[in-house]
Each structure stands twice: as C-alpha cells, then as structure tokens.
Amino acid sequence: MIVSRPKNRWPLVPLSTLAEFRNGVNFSKANFGSGIKVIGVGDFQNNVRASFDNLEQINPEGVVRKEHLLKNGDILFVRSNGNRELIGRSMFVDGLREDVTHSAFSIRLRFISDTCLPRFYAYLFRSRLIRQALSLHGGGTNISNLNQDILGRLEVPLPPKPVQYKISSILAAYDDLIENNTRRIKILEGMAKMIYREWFVNFRFPGHERVEMVESEAGLIPEGWSVEPLEGNLSVLETGNRPKGGIASFSEGVPSIGAESISGVGRFDYAKTRYVPVEYFDKMNQGVLQDRDVLVYKDGGQPGNFHPHVSLVGDGFPFSQMVINSHVYRLRTTDRTTQDYLYYHLSSDETLKWMHLHGTGSAIPGLARKDLLQLPIILPPKTLVQRFDNFAKPLTSLILITARQNQNLRITREYLLPKLISGEISVGVAEAVAQSV
C-alpha cells in the first residue's frame, strides 16, 4: 500500500521496516477500579497528543504485562470502533510520568529504527496522505477496521532526520500555542466559577455580613433571595433536529452541534462536528443558535450513566452559523437574570449532580424537558446578578476570543501539515510563518 509520492521525492519505505506494533489489552467491567490508567477510544477525540489526566483505571492483575505499558514516543491508532470516522485516528504519546496502557480497540506503534523521529510521524499519520491511503485499502471513504498488517504494509516517506525535526518543530510550535491557550481558557473559566461559588453557593457575596439567612426549600439562603423552578426564568427552551436518514455530509453545510462536541466555554471537539445541508438549515424554525446561548446535553451515554455537559456559545464561536441536534437543549433566560449567570449556575457541581440524578431512561438515559424545567435556580437580587455579570462576562468574552485564536491556529496547522510533507511549502517559509505567530 503506497502513499502518493510527495514532490520532495523522499524514499518510500514499508512502515514494518521502521516500527513494531502491538494491540492493546483486553479487559472487562470486572477489571475497572484502580491500579493503572488506560487509554480508550473515547480518549482520542481530536487530540494530537495523549492526555493522562482523566483516564479510566483498571486493576492490572492478570491483564497488564510490562510489554503492554506505553513509552514516550509511541503512537496509538484507533483499531476498531462503531464509528468508522474514528478508525485510523492517531495520537502521540509524550510526557509520560506514570504507568499507562491502552485498550484492545487500539494499536500501539513503536519505532525500532533510529532514522525516525516519532513526533514527525505522529503528524504524518494525521495527514490527508495517510488517511487517503488507509481509506483506499479499506475500499471506501472510511476503513471498517485497522490491523497491524495494514499498518505494516503502509509505505511512508523517509526524509532526512534533520528535515523531520524541522517539520515537527514547526507544527509543534502551533500545538504549544494551542495548549497554552487551552490552559488559559481553563484558568479564566475557573476564576469565574470561583466567584460564582463564593457568592451564590457559599453566600459570601459583597455585603453578606449585613444580610440575614432565612429558610427555603433549598436550605438557608440570604434574605431577599428566592429559589424557583427554572421554568419561570426561561424565554426559550428547545432542541434542534437533523434531516431524516442522517447527515448528508461531514464537511459541508451548516454545523450541527451535538452533545458529544460540547464541554464548557471555548472547548469544542471539531472532529465530531456534523453538518446539515444549507437548504435544510434555511427551513429550520428551531435550534438555530445565537450569541450567548447556553447548551445542555439532553441525552446519551450508557443506561444509568447519564453525565450532563453544559456549554455557552459566543458570537462566531465555534462557527459563524450553527444549529443543534435533537440531543441538545438551547436555553435563553428572561430579563430576571443573564446568560452568563445561567451558564455558571448550570455548570456548578451542585446543578450537574442534580441533572445526573434526574437523568432517566433504561435504553438511552437523559434529562426530560419536564424535569429540566423544574430544576431549582437560586435568584439573588438583580443588582447582584448584574454585578456578577460585570465580572464574568468579560472573562467569558476573553475565553471565546482565545478559543477563536485556537481555532485559527488549528486551521493553519492543518493547512501546513500536508503541504510541508508533500513539499508544496518549503520548510524555510513555514519556519518564518511560525516565528511570526
């Protein structure tokens, strides 16, 4: 299986002469617990590099051997999944500081040749050239599964190692900026959530010393505050829809936001975006998003395991035009509160727990509309809500600006990747562009 020869005319060699492969470990629900972290297909998302912070753990006894442990420089591939779009997706292992393994639905590649720089090939495997080669082998737009034999027969370019280093350094510069921005987003959102919690959960708001606490259905709250169902404080609560028979395209039309894509402000998994045809969008009378809409994950997941997510979209982020599908609620408030206050209320630990406990359904768990409307919301005086909004809204706006910067960085990186590898853009030109970012 040959990848289209790049203009650079680098030699093409079978991947089996450069690397060795191993499938991940098989385990059952009985193994879940603690002991060793494991990377599953759900941890790939659209990550270039693996993250080790929020991985599931399993008891390694009788399951994980030394040869199953990952090393820095390894590359993981999705081997098998119900979603054909995910098969063949890859992720680079770097920054390991503890024992981590990977599930049987993935394949580990480890280079055995010193002519290879793993990070360069981590980028190469995410390029259009490789995806096209894998798809051709699979006989269609998407391969149905991946195995060690397919990977071993893949012929890949072998540029001089200094060139590999330069190309990977250029692309890594964009990744570093994206990671720095992502950390900044988390810090900014954390600041707003901290103030929300201090004022509206711990009730240590400005001037709290002079306010009496009184009984309510939610326990003690400051005098003059109220606890009411969410229903009376919403002007809009609706879901969206998608065309019958599924989505016409994964790359054209108007983005349709699903529950799997949203998590907080400014964090979005673009790899999972699907689209509705423009002509369908033009006829939609619900589910069309506007600036500052709050989104709530409506249903999905395993039976008895509903985990709600909440997000807030901004003007132009993540896309200039957007709709939601039937698995997402769109919420807008009345003038009694604000969109930012609503978002931070819904994304608080207490409210997420409430939604989790009220998630029902034996086949597909989810949060029914009638239950969401009864969700209790604490209503402080409007002057205090506005004071919070004056603090939170600039932070949220800065998050969205930073997220758009990340969006542009990803677009530039994905533009450069195939052109550097094919030779359409010289390394020197790309280095100059990267230094100016």
Describe this structure in words.
It is a single chain. The chain is α+β, with helices and mostly antiparallel strands and about 425 residues long. Residues about 1-5 have low confidence and may be disordered. The two termini are about 35 Å apart. Helix 1 packs across helix 4, helix 4 (about 160-200) packs antiparallel against helix 9 (about 380-420) and helix 4 packs parallel to helix 10 (about 425-435). It folds into 2 domains: about 10-160, Alpha-Beta Complex (Adenine-n6-DNA-methyltransferase TaqI, Chain A, domain 2), CATH 3.90.220; about 180-395, Adenine-n6-DNA-methyltransferase TaqI, Chain A, domain 2. The chain has 10 helices and 21 strands. The longest helix is centred in the C-terminal third of the chain and has 41 residues, at about 380-420. The strands form 7 sheets. It has a 5-stranded mixed β-sheet with strand order 13-20-17-18-15. A 4-stranded antiparallel β-sheet has the order 2-8-5-6, with helices on one face. Helix content is about 30%, strand content about 20%. The protein is globular.
Q: DSSP strand (E) fraction?
A: 15-25%
The CATH architecture classification of the largest domain is Alpha-Beta Complex
Q: Termini separation (Å)? A: 37 Å
Number of helices: 10
Q: Report the biggest beta sheet as strand number plus sense, adding barrel if it closes.
A: 5 strands, mixed
Report the CATH C-level class of the largest domain.
Answer: Alpha Beta
- State the CATH topology of the largest domain: Adenine-n6-DNA-methyltransferase TaqI, Chain A, domain 2
Number of strands: 21
Order of strands across the biggest sheet? 13-20-17-18-15
